[in-house]
Protein 1
Amino acid sequence: MRNRANAGSTLIVALASTMLAAGIACAGLSIATTGQADTAREELKLRAKAVADAGVHRAIAFLDQTARLSPFEPFATLDDLLFDGGGAAIDYLLAEDEPLVMGGTTYGTCSVLLTASASGLVRDVTVTATGYVPNRASAKFRRTMQAVVRVEQRPAEVFDYSYFINNWGWFYGNTINGYGNVRSNGQFDAANYAPGAFGTPRYERIDLANPAAPDLVGYQDDNGDGVLDGSDGGIFAGWDIKDAGNVRGLGGEAQNQHDFVAQTAMPNLNDLSVYEARALAAGASLAIGGAGGLPATPVADAVLGDGVGEKQNLVLIGTVDQPILLDGPVVVRGDVIIAGVVSGQGAIYAGGNVYIANDLTYLDPPATSLPATNSEADTEAWIAANRSKDFLGLFAREHVVFGDYTHWIWRYYVDWWTNDAMNASAEDAGEDQIPGTRAGRDGIMDTADDDVLEGDGCFTVSHYTEAHAALGQIPAGKSVGDVIPGSGEDIDGDGAYDGTTTLAEFDLAAALDSGEWAGNLPAGTLHYSEIATLELTDVQAAVYTNHAAAMVTLAWGEDFDLLGALVSRNESMIYGTNHLNLTHDRRLTAGGAYGTLLPSEIVPARILAWRSLEQDLHYLGAAP
């Protein structure tokens, strides 16, 4: 009899684990009865535990979904539910004696209570779930489980790469070099060229508690060799990696080519109000000058364009003697044109396009562009030595434009590649938001893995529902029926359909002679070409756009070097230089030494602790 009871218990636990892993918020169990009271009691005890476990998992799914339903400010809706107006935690009853039903059969009821604590960009939620069998009023058995679940915002993972594209990745050239990891959410294609993908280990996070000794935590053994020796990293792709046999560097080794990995989310910059709040809280600003002890000339406070009659657009041109002075994260509600020399540490968020008109360099750059080796110790030492050096983030709500977009050569090549079928950008890319995947991983149409939404001529998205409203999950400013930003085929998260990128989208929002530009535009400048170049060679910044990064540079005989990161939805980066070198600024590793400046993302809810509040299951009623 003992063997039969053990077999029955094993079956019950296995079924419960399978259902919970699949996200089913109920605990339907097959009960193996032997006719003996002790066996029946054990089985019902296990059912009560499974019901309580299901309640915890339901709470985790609720927290995760609520944060993602408000992508611009993931904590806004959660905080409305879990805290009062003064910031004090309040208990939120997610479920009270709620039946858990599957296949028409009720297996018990569950009550779930949430209690939260807040610290910066972290919410730790204590989930207390009690399962009753058959229900609370006439319970024969109950079990209470408790978990601490963390919901967290952190600097977006996309900045861990020298090149990240939320589309198909193209390294078409023997003289392209990615000094750091490269990643695409779609296919990565080297087309039998011999580009360099030199790779670097990834880490879970960086601990900056001791500013003099940054500590990289959680080395990722990507190649699975069990050795944490700096030989990890390489090429990562959400689809397959194609024709990469000639790739140079770590990324050319089979164990460092990681295909069909989970897609990495792009942060949503369509609503910059959260970044405006951060900029105001930081007292951020931009100025020009200040060299040799002379006073600097302010050009923007924390938010440019929020004042009555204030100009929306900004031109910044720095020199060694009169650099652009960065002090924290600044939001510009319109377009930004920038070139020349920058000093300090800061970021510029643009509500329109960012134009890198000419070379853009640090006055006080890192002493070397890379650590001596890829080892953890050398990387930490390099970050420590260069943490006080200049740093700039350029983050565009729309496009990032490199060089003189008005030149006919620039427009010809960018238009050609932007409209190429291989570089599709229209938001009819299907459920996975990646074009060219309609036939699924097997490459055969009319099979189970087809992405049938791709290319169907419909903009398929999800909408807020009455169910969301009943749970308090609709963020302020949104209503039942509105598009959930970033859902379905809404790749850029603005809730509206976007077709193929056009040349017109790269044009300035206002003419330079319109009087609508703040900053230090040289007197008498009428045309963008007067301050821009078609011979771009140096950009030192972390660059982000959830639309297109577009460039043509024809600096023959020279290299094009970008120190930072290039992150985009799709790209038309066309170079006529000896090399195109994308060097990952290791200060961005694992959230970055400047994490407070970077766009943030919501981290999937994760369990920090899980325990039973009752060491022994309580038998509350008469024996069955």
Protein 2
Amino acid sequence: MRRFIVIFLSLFLLLVVIPLSLFTTNEWYGRPVFINNFFNRFALKIALDSPETLTSLHFLESVGIDGHNAELDDASPEAMDEFFKLIQEEHEVLKSYNDSDLNEEEKLSKRIALYLFEFAEEAKPFRYHNYPVNQLFGIQNSFPTFMESQHQINDLQDAEYYIERLKKLPTKFQQSLRGIELRTRNKIIPPKFVTLRVIDEMTNFIETKPEENILHHSFLEKIESVEGINAQQKDALLNEVTSTIKDEVYPAYQEMIEHFLSLSDKADDRDGFWKLPGGDEAYRLALKLFTSTDYTPDYIHNVGLQEVARIQQEILTILQTEGFDTSLGFSRAMHELASQEKFYYEDSEEGRQQILDDYKSIIANIEQNLGKAFDIRPKAAVDVKRIPEFREKTSPGAYYNGPAMDGSRPGIFYANLYDIKATPKYSMKTLAYHEAIPGHHFQIAIAQELEGLPLFRRFAPFTAYVEGWALYAERVAWELGFLADSYDNIGRLQAELFRAVRLVVDTGIHSKRWTREQAIEYMMANTGMAESDVQSEIERYIVMPGQACAYKVGMMKILELRAKVKDELGSAFSLAEFHDVILKNGAVPLDVLAELVDDYIADKKLSSK
């Protein structure tokens, strides 16, 4: 059935989505005549092999194609091997295009694609150097979140597809378990605390009554507003969801729990990638993946230490102005600031709802008053939601999910409300600017809406660019006057300090052999963050080596490039034009971003002559 759906989708996409030149078998299986057809073909091959991606993009449903909404992605080791085989094959095709036959935009697309292909081939030997089920992400929490946030129910068929996906979850769990077993045989075993966190998370999940589980609650919420489903049908569907959760979903979780109980006996308390076979090289590649640079761990660590000292001094200066005693050092001063009750909401459901409402007001205000700093704006809206309660204890402070391509779902800024002390009022504006406007929502939605670019350019996964932009957005909001209050500015600086500390602790854990406890102690002493946030953040870096370094590295590069444009253009500098250069090409490696800025400077100078 799935094969039929994929074949049918392929035919449809060839005829409707891809330019009309993609009619021949050669265009799909061989070397397309035009390079943009190659790029689009590759992106579609990836999407067609991922029904969950098709559901998230939601661009086929408008023409009546929705069978993928009954399927789940293949999580087996064989599927990963097939992916790397496809990468190798497509890499060879891409190299066959001569630059002399391409225009400038096509050359840029080729260069970006080559970067991705070449990195994938370099990283192939280390494709199992990860922990696919951990306290932060994995099938055990991504599946309920996906079903709640991505699977839409607009009619009876969508509801039945929802149930089909629940029934197929055990197969995906089995596929994932085979990958974990393969890693275990190769001594890729997560630290003991990871196994214990996962066991605890999944145990809590299955100890919830099926009728109170997020999978049931989400389904009920979705079908309540569907007019095409009558009361009798709703009751029957709800009964089937309940029984499926009880008889199929929960047993799959129980099997995973039992496996992790066994795995816990093999785990130890060493936290860094250095402990794994080939761990130093794996970490080097992780840094390259996330920063799109060849910076060494030592370089990143030292830059982090310098930035920590600089930002702390700026914060202490503001605190002194506000009457705080800073004579006992940064940590004590931040503790005094954080201890003041006036900066926190009521620790209740009403208080948490007020936080969400205030986030929405903050976003609406900056959206309406960005003035001339941006010529380009996203069409997609952005909403604010609470991170689902079942996973918020081990989740980061916030994250963002992009909008559906067809406009049926806005971008969503998810806020973690587990610990009310982790959301001081003075930090909220900065977090909203980072996750929504002009941060992630601006950049990701604009990239997704760009016309004329190959699909892969609109969704390119360059973390240093994406996260660097969001951190830069915090700085821009301050420069534009949205953080004029001294405490709000401390919130901004504390957020930047947080990213500088990440450079130190990430490299400390994975290269300098710091323990989890050492990293927590350093971050607690140097950020003034709530302990609950620090613990979940450090545990995040342990299972996502290198990712935390992308933010500050990317921000520093964007600021460096902006300073260069100002210096080169003088009075002709336009902040809005600079932002156009950064945003209108989609996410790119940092060295490519630098070249785009150099081209802009040269064109600007030429046009002024």
Protein 3
Amino acid sequence: MGAVYLFHDLYGYLMQMSPDIAEMIESFSDGVDTKETVAYYKDKLGDADPQQFVEILVGHAVLVDPKEEEIDGIWAYIPIHGKWNIWRRKDDRLTFWTAWGERPEQQILLDAAETAIWDAFDGAKRLIELRHHHDNDKIVSLVRKLVHSDVQALKLSMMPWSVYAKRPAMAPAYLASTMPYPSWKPGTPVPPAPDLTAYHQTSITHADEQFDHQETTLSHLLRIPHPALGGRTYGQKLADVMMARGMVREGTVRVLEVGAGLGYVAKDVIATLTEAGRTVEYTIVELSPVLAAAQQERVGKETAKWINGDVLAVDLPEASFDLILSNEMAGDLPARQLTRADLGLEPDQGNVNREKLATFSKIAADRGVNLDDAPEPFYLMTGAFELVEKIGKWLAPGGHAILTEFGDIAAWPKVSTHLDHPELSTHFGHLHQLAKGAGLTAKVEFVIDLLDFDREQKGLATTRSHFRALRALAAGAELDLPKIGYTPELLEKTVGDKLDLTRVGELRWDRIEDRLMGLVPHEFKALLIAR
């Protein structure tokens, strides 16, 4: 999204910066004169003082004195096991699996001496304390190997982990962060954020991989009969709840789903409503041709009707649907980054875009959407606003709609940067105000409450890269691990006797509402609309 991250291959530091700062760092590669370099960049970094950047970079050992031996600096530090490692122990040896971002999967084998050193990295002892018990060259070699961005199994910290154990929020972010992004060389263009319409039309080339790796959704993790949903799938439970709440009329039900992913929800909703005696007329609006093909294969071409195109541009008859579903796609709709001056919330400095002001005055102000607490700058969910307006027109009298996405009731949208395309969290308070201002009945619920999650269940906590590495480990045991929301019982059942999970790390389990694979289920909300 236009940012550059520096990963320190000797310490594990992770620093976000703009490309011009990275260019300045590279200029020091030949041991140039510091004063001359600072003077050269004096007017090239906007209002920032390059000398301040140099001091910060020296403090993080990014820039070092050419006369110093760089490796001498590590001995005062404490090695801490990095987060999101995958490893397996066999006898007195350890093997790591890594698969950062789109990089190839790899194995890192430790010999017995290296494994003993790894075990001695307890998060409390400084490296200098370990010199008396282990070969010094082995220590240095292992630190270089395990800290490196190719592995990321170790971080160096000035403070012991016990300082942060009871106050994890105080811990430097790099100790828990990883670097899944591709390498970038200064002097080359930083790839721009892709246009979302073009992304969904052309960049999605493999349907299953899109949801198994790129942007796994909560409904995708729960596409199997799941213990957290009483043995029901996400789509089945959603249909159960809608019927129990009187949201589905008897007889013929005209259903519209906006952006149907791989079609699992559509398949299970249709089957569940049909089993309950409804006649289902199901329509799907899908922007991605690849996903539409996957949906047709899963749902059946004769079971539903497809409209290929942008939901904000399609022409659908008013009052033509009894039920509308928009499941985890609102964050992919267009949004605009604005300033408070753009909306007249600050004095006009002569740079206000009047077209923006007119558009949002109509959409937001006329519907009673309060924008007074907007930060500077901010994202306005113009696409989601427009979708809610359209849902209100497409719903028949007595009809209902459910829009789910990750976000909050009062928090302004934030950009997710871990995907290969921008995606915004959702300000459900705005959508709620908008729906009510359009004369609809509306309320916001947590998805885990809507679907009545069994909160006693535990869920496997992963990241995208962590799970890729786990799948690579499992593949070595001739196991295929599908991307589902694993509970301890589900994982044990999947691996059977092919893999001893007691010898595999790091497998972390959390309350299923707090973490399930790479998602935080309690962050997902549902806007319930009725006409």
